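Extended Data, panel c. Modelled sequence:
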Amino acid sequence: GLQTTINRLHPYYTYECRVAAHTTREGVLSRPINITTDQDAPSAAPENIRGHASGSTSIYLYWSPPPLQHRNGIISGYYIYVTEVITGTETEHTSTGLQTTINRLHPYYTYECRVAAYTTREGVLSQPINITT
């Protein structure tokens, strides 16, 4: 046929492609074209999740992005999941940077916090850290 599919390529990676006709001998290669594969979800979690109470009803969180080879695209932001340890009530927050402050929490509660980076899709959640307001 006049088309083919190439599998097992890396996400969000640019490949140079050329084709040549082949009969009894290989033909002349075409001019190269660059093709970039689609973004995918990050395949590793953000790293170095840290935080502390920043008031009686707020916590401050900060982290490092996933390793470059696991980003699989352009990191658009981060989902932050905050769960009250006693009740299991979870809230979801977003940040476009590497830090955030979560407000309107209960005083003297312990919260489990996890972070996931996202490109066009959500990636792997970090290990949880607990912070008490």
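The beta strands are 14-17, 33-36, 47-55, 58-64, 77-84, 90-95, 99-102, 110-118, 122-125, 129-132. This feature is highlighted in the accompanying rendering.
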